[in-house]
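User: Please predict the structure of the protein below. I'd like the answer in structure-token form so I can feed it into my own downstream comparison script.

Assistant: Understood. Taking the following sequence of 1008 residues as input:
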Amino acid sequence: MKTHISRNSFNAKKRYSGIYQQMGRMLTDADWNELSDIDKYRLADVLIDVIGSGTPRERGLVNVTDNPDGSKSYALQWGYCYVDGLIAQVRPDPAATLSDINSIAFEYAHQVDFPGAPALPVGDYRLYVDVWERTVIALEDTDLRDPGLHGADTCTRTQTMAQVKWCGTGVEPEDAAHNPSVGEAKLTLTVRQGSIEPDPCDPCAEEVALQDKLGNYLFRVEVHHVQYDVSGQPQRVTLKWSSENGAEQHVIGDEPPGFSSSNWVYEFFDGYSDPDALTPETFDSEKHLGRHLATGFTPVRGELVDGYPDSVPSGFTAVRRWDGYCEFQKSGNDWVLQSGADRGVELSTGSSVDAHGHITEGSTVTINHDVMTLAIELADWQMLAGDFWYAVVRQAVNVAGETLLSAEEPMGIHHHYLLLGTVSGGVFSPDEDLICQRFGFPPLTDLQAGDVCYRVPDCGDGNQPTIASLLKQLLGADFPDNTDARGNIRQILDALLCRHAAATLPIVKNDTLCQSLQAPEIRSVQDALNLLCQRDVDGCATYTVFPRPGWESVFDQIASNQDASLCFREGDYQLPAEKRIQSKGHLKISGAGPGTRIISSNGETALRFEACASVTMRDVYIEARAAGNTGELKTLNGALTFHNCAQVHLNQVTLRNAAGTRPGATCLTVGHADLQTGSAHVQDCYCDVGHLQIGMLFLNMDRLTVRDNHIKTRPKPRSWTLQTQLNDKLFAASARRLLINNGEVRNFESTRAAGKKNIQMDAVNNNRRIMIESPVAGNVWKSSLTQELGANAVASNQVLLNTAKTIAARVLTDPVYRAGFLPFENWFTALGNQNPSVAYKGIVCGGRTAKDVRILNNTLEGVQEGIHIGVSDRKQSGNQRYQAGRVAIEGNTIHVLLPPVTVHRRGGIFCGNCNHLSIINNHITIQRFLFSRQTEIEGIRIFGTMGRMFIVRQNYMTSCTVGVRAQPVGLQPDANISNQWLVADNMMPQASLAVVAPASVTKTNNLK
């Protein structure tokens, strides 16, 4: 945007520190503007000395995380940065739908300051910040008009832009030779005509032949667009100039009288934001100025037209006026005119040298304007779109032949660049030599030794252990090496003052040292002591494991098919990624109960055992803090996972997985490939299940016993509000069906639908009747429909129904809209109060094989479905059915939560396709909420191909729709064979139906 100013009087070289008014003297816009420039310049001058360039520790664009193992992780987030002393904020577009529900993680495509940003490349690339200032006027921000002055335009504003851009890995975005802050072209501006105003003090003024009137204005020359060749040098340049500073700009269709003419050049651009528009303008043409190092990207520019056209170009909302423009193409060392005009005169090289519109081509281009001669030295200088020059023209003082600018470089726009780092393989990391200098700097009042960098000297032979090399081993990536990388003083001092012990004393290796201490991993005295001590710590343990970085490598020391016993001491065992243990023999793993904590921060699996002869584990705690990563089970991996392990025994193991908006992880997964089976025994374990996740999952089991375990759902994170969960489309669709369901539209004379809200529309919409199931009153729906439709008549019944569905969607997602209808607001609040944390399933046994399954005496709390046993194969063609063998589900206590929004099967116990089944003495309670009072749910469901015997007996179930539903399918009862299909002696308080089953099932003494 451009602004109406009389001149720009700020000059940093004069070192002015303030502006003061005088009595009876004039105050001009230039005085006020210069005061702002003085303050802004002085502040930036201070910050460049104190801060320079970087990102702060708090609210910084680069988030630095200290990991438990002493290393650091880096990620981009929405936040602040300082570039050459200028503070800027990289902000998200408030109209964008962000992937991060907490609006913390940086998302390149949704920058509010960089609309239409070029797509990120597939391979590796670098990221940098471009910080610059632009002007904002009332066309962009209608708040700059004062309603109290009948909408009169007021002062303009400047806005600091912060754009995260990308470039190739071989490009240096901070290299001024390739990516300058401002262009280098030199401009000379000379007056061709003087003033006709006579000097009243000159007695001979009447005798002198005077030239045409010059005028009073601020003359602006600007680079409109630059195209670069493959080497990054300008090859095509468009200039434009204005005696109005380019500030005459209006909404298309709202231009004032006299604005449109054939004697001007008009730039049509994206520059008007209607505050009531559904999709406000993004001002791409105003925000794409400067240099873009991304390959294959064409920034948006306004379209220049000589004379106001009869039909304006499409895609633009605003227009500004220029005196003229010209476009040049580089040919060899010269610049050649392509097109141009000035005040209605076409530019030409063939006209008289002194004529208006004449151009001289070459490395310096000269253009005759109507009252100015413009000479710009293009040569091989760098140029940026948005470069501009100012010249103050005053008819009282300027005379023909006077030079207003002499070989001046552009006055702006000044761009400031900050290299952030490189994205390689999808992972962001800052350049190593910039980390300590730029990212995560603290306030001066919180500056500590850990924030100060230090470069360690070269310690000599890298093969011989030294104190420095041992400190590096102890501190990991935080300790600097002898390259240009820097470490921080606190860690070095801590290591020298507090950790200088056996762990930092080198061990001398020679022929006299025993063979076991010659191993490469034995570097310090402490390493040697640990190795010698291991045999005494636990006489039965092959390995004793301690909680220190790299502990997981103990599994790599076990040879293929080798048996081993591992004793884990108490402490936190951090895992940067999933640890796979493959093709081992018989493994026994024990710990100190919940005091031995194995934690994975980055995945849904901490430990994954594959193709081991057997794994016995007891007295450990295992946690995975992420859910939803891909895997062989399509995201249903466990914090503890076993695959193709013949025998698995777990006792007193505590497991915890992460929460998610959809099922994506389990606490425990034990599975086998289709052609393999195995056994598992899980006893006295505790599963802390995240929202919508699974407790235990078993696939293709030969023999399975799950006994005396406790599975409990923990509360959702506080940040997971109902509004957050509605970002999941499946959850939102289910919630929407609570508000509007089974909708239909009929003509008004049709029969009213029983049990639905019958909403009669007015004559504008042909008195149509829309009928829906909804907890909100029909008059509220009618009011919202009338408001949504306005005076427009709907074209069909389907359009009216779609409008109602759109209203339902807005009620769920738009708080402002919802607040306009109190019944909708009350309904939404009630729904949020009925949104507990609930596990998807407690215990699941599936696959194609389940020969002997026993689920005994377990407690399951806060589950959507308690126990699910069902063998099948969705990939199998034909009518082949798989059946479990013997299944016993006895003595379990199951607490089922039934919130209003359920998106999967729910119930206490499900068993399908089973040969011999007994479900005995289970206690099932179902907790409903106000909105889920009518939701159907079964206490026990039996479905599929059943063998000759299933017994459901002595179970207690509350608040079910159906206590027991038995639905054998596929096989017809043989009259010559007696089946023992029995449902007897069960109690179902508050059930609508006690038992639903065919006559082939014996039903005896079932009470409700």
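That's the full token string. The CA atoms of residues 289 and 642 lie 56 Å apart.
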